[in-house]
Hints:
The structure holds two protein chains of two kinds.
Chain A: H1 19-26, H2 30-47, E1 51-52, E2 61-62, E3 66-73, H3 75-99, H4 104-107, H5 113-117, E4 139-148, E5 151-158, H6 165-178, H7 180-185, H8 194-203, E6 216-219, H9 228-238, E7 241-243, E8 248-251, E9 254-259, E10 262-265, E11 268-271, H10 275-278, H11 294-299, E12 304-306, H12 317-320, H13 323-331, E13 338-339, E14 343-344, H14 348-356, E15 361-365, E16 375-376, H15 382-394, E17 399-403, E18 409-414, E19 417-426, E20 428-431, E21 435-437, E22 442-445, E23 461-467
Parallel strand pairs in A: 3-23, 5-13, 6-7, 6-11, 11-12
Antiparallel strand pairs in A: 1-2, 4-5, 4-20, 8-9, 9-10, 14-17, 15-16, 15-17, 18-19, 19-22, 20-21, 22-23
Helix pairs in contact in A: 3-13
Chain B: H1 5-37, H2 45-52, H3 56-60, H4 68-76, H5 85-98, H6 105-121, H7 131-152, H8 157-185, H9 195-206, H10 211-218, H11 224-232, H12 241-259, H13 264-278, H14 281-287, H15 289-310
Helix pairs in contact in B: 1-2, 1-5, 1-7, 1-8, 1-9, 5-6, 6-7, 8-9, 8-11, 8-12, 8-15, 12-13, 13-15, 14-15
Organism (chain B): Jiella pacifica
Pfam families (chain B): Alpha-E
Protein name (chain B): DUF403 domain-containing protein
Amino acid sequence: MKSFDEMLIPEGDVRDPYARFYEWFREQDADALGEKAGEAEAFFRRTGITFNVYGQEEAAERLIPFDLVPRIMAKAEWDNLAEGIEQRVTALNAFLDDLYHDQEIIKAGIVPERLIAGNEAFLEEMRGFRPPGGVYTHIIGTDIVRCGENEFYVLEDNARTPSGVSYMIENRETMMQMFPELFAQNRVRPVETYPHHLRRSLAAVAPPACEGTPTIAVLTPGIYNSAFFEHAFLADQMGVELIEGSDVAEIDGRIQMRTTEGYKPIDVIYRRVDDAFLDPKVFNPNSVLGIPGIMEVYKNGGITIANAPGTGISDDKAIYSYMPEIVEFYTGDKAKLQNVPTWRCAEDDSLKYVLEHLEELVVKEVHGSGGYGMLVGPTSTREEREIFAEKLKKRPANYIAQPTLALSTVPILVDGGLAPRHVDLRPFVLVSDKVRIIPGGLTRVALQEGSLVVNSSQGGGTKDTWVLRD
Amino acid sequence: MALLGRTANGLFWMFRYIERAENTARLLDAGQRIALTNLSSEPDEWQSVLVSAGVEAAYAAKHQDHDPDTVVDFMLRDRDNPSSVRASLETARTNGRMVRTALSRELWEAVNESWLVIQRRLSSPVTARELPAVIDLVKRQGALIRGTFQTTMLRNEIFDFCNLGAFIERADNTARILDVKYWLLLPEHSQVGSALDNFQWRSILRSVSAHRSYAWEYDGEYRAVNIIDFLMLNRRMPRSLAYCYTVIEESLKYLNRNYEVRHPCFETATEINQRLSDTSVRQTIDGGLHEFIEVFIRDNNRLAQEIGQNYRFYPTA
């Protein structure tokens, strides 16, 4: 399978956005670059930019490998993408509002009711409730893959609690420290404004009970959570409190945090705790990570929760295949970004096709994430496929399948120079009084030759991602 | 911006453990000095190191005799010993990670880097020959952290809670050293001028890094009453009980002013500090040095608890 390389044209030329970078690169000494890679790693360790790996007791903090070669996008390429993303996140919010109110889209026969009614991600508690500002999913990470010059696909709409934005910012910080000259030669749009935009976005959807400047807090499950670094980073950069469930209590109809001076109400909470653990009074009663009573306070206008509970229904993999119709239904326009063709295994014809073509397909669990519980057909063994086929037949509705995409490649730095590796892209989008999209995003890269798995939990790395001004 | 009670708690304990790691290293330093001279009439110098660190019971649960290598390893590397250098730094760093939004980037990096460097150095057992270099490393990283703290942190309540942790721990440490060695300093024991006494006394000073400054303050003569005065009541000596309480009272005063509330813990600190001012070294000796120190250690612990309650370190049930 031939992949599109974003830097090099098969004849050996370099694509436009990379021209200046490549010229610079050829003047660099290979050994010196190797040393810089070591410096970058030391920098990440000292700064504590690590993530925790579940299920590994010793040395549980790991670094996400960082590759020095930036991924570069031209202005026009990005502008097209950004337009498509804005359309998509607007539709997602309209879809959520509809699902929790009149369900016109079901009445219109576009999305089948069975996908909603029996879905764990659909929360009855949210029915008939409209969050402050009418925004459901405030922070979104739209996963995008590229397969050709003008061929972009949305792989997933992460509408619950997308992570990785801290790496986007730290990758840029690292590159600017190591190679300041590159930023003098290339006009790269900044990403470090993200925390500022995030704070403004959150402040703009303060609840009715808020008086004066909204008090914002980030809710983390704690230091053992895999993304703790990011939670602390965002709180720090926004200049807001980082709280755990044990720091707050419901008092006088507000959610209040225990400070050294007594209890103080919180207006907007950016929670990095899943729905199920958010309120033990309403959801999982055994949760110690959440805040008892927050749902009631929320519904009475005492607090804004970002993202709103129940947004997971919109990025459910079973819903995903309906996204082109969903976008058109709410915006009145054809979807600007393409979906990856998807077989819904719940449908008999599709299941039959998928079982016959396992070798070519990627099969995913509808509710899975992080690359766990999936089968990558082309790199699987016969035995793995046989085991997976049994699982599929047992619970077909639990799976969808997609063709194995020829993900684009961007070179990484290896001992012998440059070598192409597959990448994806997660731009970060903020929805509030308006839609704010940070130019670029997090590029994840598979470090093994030929591998298509870019997830950091499975050994993927990251790159700085540049959007050029011109 | 408001400060979370849990954050104040994390800051307080982060600094207690940073201080503790260094105190442990210092005790080992003094212990090795005495062991090397073979002068001691008390063969079990290493046991007194364990008692000073308050970990004798934990040690006894794992080991029978006081073999020097075993004690050194227990104090430096054993994770089962919460006061070992390794465990202390791990606890300090975990607390630091939890409260990193309250720290300057430089301070967090100094703590994280110290943990990385020392952890690596302690990944395998340390031989007697390597011990001085390791102790030196621990002290230098401690200095790096304190220096970064002094030069990059805002003078707000975060700074005060860090100081409270550091100085309550330090006061506890100095008091414990006195408690273990007080008999050496009592008149009925000392045969003034003997080589042994001189050496023992110097080692006490050494365990608080003050053998040189003592000479400046008291004209170089080793006298029991001067050493007691120096460690307890001298307000120029940065590890003395009186100095620690100067800082503690001052920090609590800033917090009072900041929050416009006067908490019971402030009264407790003032009272302890006043006692240190009102007592002369003669009075402490005549009234029973051991008893005085015992009361001090208990009061110091009580103050730590009151601070936690008054500033809502924990949720109240």
